[in-house]
Amino acid sequence: MFNNWEELEKEANICKKCRLCETRKNVVFGTGKKDAEIMLIGEGPGADEDVQGEPFVGKAGKLMNMAFQMLGINRENLYIANIVKCRPPQNRNPLEDEAKACLDYLRNQVILVKPKIIVLLGSVALKNILGQEYGITSSRGKWIEKKGILYMPTWHPAALLRDENKKIDFIKDLKEVQKVYNENIR
Ligand code: URA
Ligand code: SF4
What is the pLDDT of residues 32-43, one digit of tens each? Predict the structure, then answer.
């Protein structure tokens, strides 16, 4: 556990706790407002994120940004990170031991950010944060409260690229987050 960002980020940037360190170009630590009230958690870096060292800068990220724009959400006011910080080869899902090795960093980030709301982007984020027993299809769009944090599971932005209906759900879920934020937190 680190109680400051500098040490935590320094440690993550040289991490070799799992095999993903062997193929990564950059550790994608996370980005955004360090005391954000809303945090977003994705799965892991893709090719673009691996090159640029920033989460959600590729195709899925651009689609997510469009949704933010539509709703008047400023990306800079959020904190965005992933379950694993290094790109899994061929964009496969992170393996259990990789996610487990990396989760300490993310937990540390959550402790430092102290978000009120966490949006879980897709199944990998949902299962690794709230438990393997959760399924994204039945959980999405429904609030889950745990230890004083409100979790909103929704589709992973990459899934929106393949299915128009999921775009509608995604916007709906973000709107719900915005509503609860405006009514209870802001
Ligand atoms: N998909 C993710 O889950 N995270 C990213 O940072 C980019 C794509
Ligand atoms: Fe370390 Fe996480 Fe990268 Fe694995 S994915 S090497 S645990 S930073």
Answer: 999 999 999 999
- Ligand 2: which atom is nearest the Cα of residue 15? 1
Which ligand has the shortest distance to the CA of 99? Answer: 2
Cα 82 to ligand 1 centroid, rounded to whole Å = 7
Instruction: State residue 151's pLDDT score.
Output: 98
CATH number of the domain where residue 42 is located: 3.40.470.10
Among 57, 72, 46, 43, CA closest to 136:
43
Q: Is the CB of residue 70 less than 8 Å from the CB of residue 167?
A: no
This prediction's pTM = 0.97
Domain that holds residue 81: 5-185
How many structural domains comprise the chain?
1
The total number of residues written for the chain in this structure: 186
